[in-house]
Amino acid sequence: MHELDLILTLTGGLAAALVLGYVTHRLGLSPIVGYLVAGIVVGPHTPGFVANQELAEQLAEVGVILLMFGVGLHFHFDELLAVRRVAVPGALVQSLVATVLGAVVAHAFGFGWTAGIVFGLAISVASTVVLVRVLTDQRELHTPVGHIAVGWLVVEDLFTVVVLVLMPPLFQKGGDAAPQIGLVLGVAALKIAALVAVTFLVGGRVIPWLLERVAATQSRELFTLTVLVVALGLVVGSAKLCGVSMALGAFLAGMVVGRSEFSLRAASDALPMRDAFAVLFFVSVGALFDPRQLIESPGLIAATLGVILVGKPIAAFALTAALRYPLKTALAVAVALAQIGEFSFLLARLGRQLDVLPPVAMHALVAGAIVSIPLNPLLFRLVDPVAAWLARRRRVATPDGAVESAPHEPRESREPRDPRHRAIVVGYGPIGQIVTRILRENDIEPTVVELNLETVRALRAAGIAAVYGDATHKDTLTAAGAATAGSLILGASQIRASGEVIRLARELNPEIDVLARATYVRELGGLLASGAATVVSGEGEVALAFAERILRDLGATPEQIDRERERVRADLLGRAPR
Prior knowledge:
mainly alpha
């Protein structure tokens, strides 16, 4: 019966998430909203199918571990250092303001101050997933606004990891701080320091060594298992040996792998179950929401939304503007942070497990997420007109409608390279080598995507941009610069799922010119249908060479040979005759 409950919970939860995630995506909203609503649908507070909540929460724990591993994997200090002047004080001050506002709201509705602080901390954290999605859709991810907002979230995430680690020793006695609070924090700090030291000093050498040995086997399954074992091993070690949060173990494991050459491949190739378990996490959170709270606790939900949509943005705007950043930048950063997501629920779930937060707190947070996440992109679209209106009111507008840039705002050191002079070459076999050499000789900058680690290292040593990863994954093509490249050349003899590579490249860049190699003529139609502009087949080239030789021996003129060559290319090589 337990096995049947497991299958029903998985099937029902994922099916509801699929349907509602698709609906919200089609409506232009974040799928996270759909996943939360799916949890409400399969939860105990609505009629119809009810998922096993205990099993769903156990499965969601795996999702939490993989989410934290992913956060650590993408955590880069250089991104933080680039905008540290605004991101560090901004994130800390905004978190403090939001925490205080959240605590005051919670206390006003009958929470204790301890529960109020945890509630305020949960409100203070914005969703990295939602933020990146909004910035990408608005083409702001790689602008000063995007850099500041992402750096801001990096600080918030790091701060939240620290809070997650400290909450269990502080609140393990039913939510009251222990009398020996200094001793508790001191012991926790020593355990954390020991875990970090061992992870980076020992794991920083052992883990990359292990991944390199496994990668050399060319087995995707073994690589996947290795990354999962590394992540789960550090999680178990942190919980059992050091007695600290599993979240910290997963975060540290991600950071160690992220600092190695295998970060991209681990992110795109070795976590196939991450998204599914992350979905289950959001479904399990949504299942906690009781729609009746909209009637029974409308004041708490409205006040929570007020902090998320008004309090947090005002704090972020005031600090960014005080640091003399442009008006538009300050507005955009403030609006981008006016939402809550995955870390809010991690904090709230831990608060519930420690018996610190009352159930109504989770209801308010879920309602806040369901409202704030879909509103966020709509509010972001108002940034430009509002900034222009405010600039006119202040009479300091520049011709483009924004105030003068702050002297410390980062700027690009050079103009972006013409896309026609950038190409991606997938595979560095004989054809890839020849194509790369010709491109470089003609001032076209190639980026090679290759799964042979030694080849990637040799290319980088020679000054050629190279990405270690599988081109069938979107993250790999993104890292290679597909969004701004002029051409994509699939030159390897056996590229797995070439059609998928082409589809993903065109999704990132509809204007990219794709040249593909096929082993057999029968593959031409599929590659052309996927979006390749030109497809060359080994069989077709042999047929073309034979036809030219026969025509030449029969005394055909060069014009006749050219005409027949074009006809053969049209028939066999997937290229229209000229």
